[in-house]
Design goal:
Function: Component of the ribosome assembly machinery. Nuclear paralog of the ribosomal protein P0, it binds pre-60S subunits at an early stage of assembly in the nucleolus, and is replaced by P0 in cytoplasmic pre-60S subunits and mature 80S ribosomes.
Shape: elongated
Largest sheet: 6 strands, antiparallel
CATH superfamily of the largest domain: Ribosomal protein L10, N-terminal RNA-binding domain
CATH class of the largest domain: Alpha Beta
GO biological process, one term: ribosomal large subunit assembly
Structural class: alpha+beta
Family: Belongs to the universal ribosomal protein uL10 family.
Oligomer: single chain
CATH architecture of the largest domain: 2-Layer Sandwich
Protein name: Ribosome assembly factor mrt4
Strand content: 15-25%
Distance between the termini: 63 Å
Helix content: 25-40%
Number of domains: 2
Radius of gyration: 25 Å
Number of strands: 11
InterPro entries: Mrt4, Ribosomal_uL10, Ribosomal_uL10-like_insert, Ribosomal_uL10-like_insert_sf, Ribosomal_uL10-like_sf, Ribosome_Assembly_uL10
């Protein structure tokens, strides 16, 4: 009887080596890019949408490069102190790599970068667990946007519905979600059916480094750590 591939033993040393090689590849890529681009920015993001981000990255690939991933790996790549930084002052960038953050390396003028990031907004459907931005309530009566085949599905989402002469009808007022609350799986599905987009994918610039200067954009960052480093 042939051996199952599922039961095949995998050497942990091989997986560890592969992981280490992958990290080393990222470190080398970031260090190479840091030598080839005029400016380096730290940015953060909210409500990340991979497809939209990929489109934004493609739009700028002729002049810029993005890196997302482990903050620790990105910090190591640039250097976390004066002693190990790869270019003068660049360790200050590492100090501001926290949370949902990434690196943006570019040859674009500062004003163009600021405009691109400040204007960037993409709306999408909110996902389960996200915080709602408004209250959504449906009033009692017919829901003509839904076909009669959807009535059982809507009922499973907790909506008090029935069929009345083939028309889906809400038998009482129904609150889909309250403002400022975590979105349930059922509420997320209903909002999608209603076409209501509550999530906004945004990018925020945190700081900018160039060989000439270093600038912190966003208030609330730990500037004291940067200054004391």
């Amino acid at each position: 009887m042939p051996k199952s591939k599922r039961n095949r033993a995998v050497s942990l040393t091989k997986t560890k080596k592969k992981g280490r090689e992958h990290k080393e590849s990222i470190v080398n890529s970031i260090r190479e890019a840091a030598e080839n681009y005029n400016s380096i920015y730290v940015f953060t993001f909210e409500n990340m949408r991979n497809l939209k981000f990929k489109e934004f990255r493609e739009q700028l690939k002729s002049t810029s490069r993005f890196f997302l991933g482990s903050n620790k790996v990105m910090q190591v790549s640039l250097g976390r102190s004066v002693a190990d930084e790869i270019r003068p002052g660049i360790h200050k960038v590492s100090k501001l790599l926290h949370g949902d953050a990434g690196l943006f390396l570019t040859n674009l003028p500062k004003e163009e970068v600021e405009r691109l990031f400040n204007e960037y907004e993409e709306y999408d459907f909110a996902r389960t667990g996200s915080i709602t931005t408004e209250k959504v309530e449906l009033k009692e009566g017919p829901l003509e946007q839904f076909t009669h085949e959807m009535e059982p599905f809507l009922r499973k989402q907790g909506m008090p519905v029935q069929l009345n002469k083939g028309v889906v009808e809400l038998v009482s007022d129904f609150v889909v979600c309250e403002e400022g609350k975590h979105l349930s799986p059922e509420s997320a599905r209903i909002l999608r059916l209603l076409g209501i987009k509550m999530a906004t994918f945004r990018l925020h610039l945190i700081c900018r480094w160039s060989p000439e200067d270093f600038e912190v954009y966003r208030e609330g960052q730990d500037e004291s750590d940067v200054e004391s480093a």
